[in-house]
Design a protein that fits this description.
The protein is α/β, with parallel strands linked by helices. It contains 18 helices and five strands.
């Protein structure tokens, strides 16, 4: 039997299940309940944040509201029997419904495709459905001629036709099309919400995982639920249960959090041998230099957020297991010093790409990070008590 990836098997079946997009969900539900459903919608946002899932749910709620747990019923509307609605819902979610047509804008971008869509839109919906709904994914890929052909139909479509346009690049959709749509912005999903959803998915898969694994995968999703679920698919393919940081390191090349914390701790102590040895150990475990630099920047960012906002801030993207140790480590820095360290690492990222000796640049940079306290002390002596590098000036303090 063919395996279905997590992103498809755990696709949202109710509006509340589209993680991180509740403002959009509530607005669409209110539009249905109040009878104010527009003829065209434009869903904008990065990949994997729920645009197509929301479009399918909205289509189900319009034609088969009894199949969506939290969908309202419009007053005075006669819907088909429940068994008919169930068949509609299954066809909609599998992309096989005759009345809910999903079109890929990249492969159906010609003016002939647009004219065929317009011709079909004039036909009434079948099988007791109320609406014929067109979901056009990656709509920005349509040609200029195709957009022009759609203009009139999108402005004054037949009463039974609804358009839902989805795009990751809204700036490429002509203003003439955007002005005919109600536009909704889909936000990147917070790391904490992705991690929480991943926990529920693993429960369904009867697999255990540490908080560190969940948070690392959620962070790598970078706001995209689909990307995070794709990474989790790779981890589950190992057959390991429970999923541990070692599995994450072996499969994705990510360094273990304890090693990263140890390296930054050595930097904070000005321990040059410990800093260089910690860097060498991480590289020796198969972590690429670019990836190590990126992980260090991300960890220092979290320390900066802890130093500025406290460990309880929602901005801090660390698991509860890691937060206490990170909070102790953050006390050894100030926010200005952490910003300076992140800047040095960012400069390393750029210069290492064109250098014939990137490892030497990495070693020099981590040593410079470990020596930053002494450099600050020298700057303070040169600048005096009130200078920018002095003990009373900005950026001149690094806590012991």
């Amino acid at each position: 039997m063919a395996y279905t990836v997590l992103a498809r098997r755990y696709r949202s079946q109710r509006f509340a299940g589209v993680i991180g997009q509740q403002p959009v969900a509530e607005t669409l539900k209110n539009a249905i309940a109040s009878g104010r459903v527009a003829h065209a919608y434009l869903f904008c946002g990065t990949r994997g944040v729920g645009k197509t899932s929301m479009a399918r749910l909205f289509a189900r709620a319009l034609n088969a509201p009894d199949t969506v747990e939290d969908a309202p019923r419009a007053e005075g509307v006669a819907y088909p029997p429940e068994d008919v609605q169930e068949r509609m819902a299954q066809a909609i979610m599998s992309g096989q419904d005759m009345n809910v047509v999903e079109i890929d804008g990249a492969s159906n971008n010609s003016v002939d495709n647009a004219r065929q869509l317009i011709a079909n839109a004039g036909l009434s919906p079948t099988a007791n459905a109320l609406y014929k709904i067109y979901i056009i994914d990656e709509v920005h890929m349509l040609s200029g001629a195709a957009f022009n052909a759609l203009l009139k139909t999108m402005e004054e479509p037949p009463p039974h036709v609804k358009f839902i346009l989805c795009t990751t690049e809204a700036h490429k959709v002509p203003p003439t099309i955007q002005s005919r749509c109600q536009r909704f912005e889909f936000r990147d999903i917070p790391t904490a919400q992705i991690a929480e959803h991943l926990r529920g998915v693993l429960d369904g898969e009867q697999t255990q995982a540490s908080d560190e694994v969940l948070w690392q995968v959620a962070r790598l999703g970078r706001g995209s639920m689909r990307d995070a679920l794709s990474l989790m698919d790779r981890l589950l393919a190992t057959g390991e249960n429970p999923l541990t940081p070692r599995v994450l390191s072996d499969m994705l090349g990510l360094p273990q959090q304890s090693l990263v914390t140890g390296l930054v701790s050595a930097m904070a102590a000005g321990d040059l041998p410990g800093t260089l040895e910690g860097t060498a150990e991480l590289l020796g475990r198969g972590v690429g230099q670019d990836q190590l630099t990126e992980v260090l920047i991300e960890f220092l960012r979290n320390l900066m957020l802890i130093a500025a906002c406290g460990p309880g801030s929602e901005l801090v993207e660390l698991s509860e297991d890691v937060k206490p140790e990170a909070a102790e480590l953050a006390e050894r820095f100030d926010a200005a010093g952490l910003v300076h360290m992140m800047t040095l690492l960012e400069n390393l990222q750029r210069s290492a790409k064109s250098s014939p000796t990137p490892r030497a640049l990495l070693d020099a940079t981590v040593v410079r990070l470990a020596l930053s306290e002494k450099v600050a002390d020298v700057a303070g002596l040169l600048a005096g008590p009130g200078g920018p590098g002095g003990p009373d000036g900005p950026g001149g303090k690094k806590k012991a």
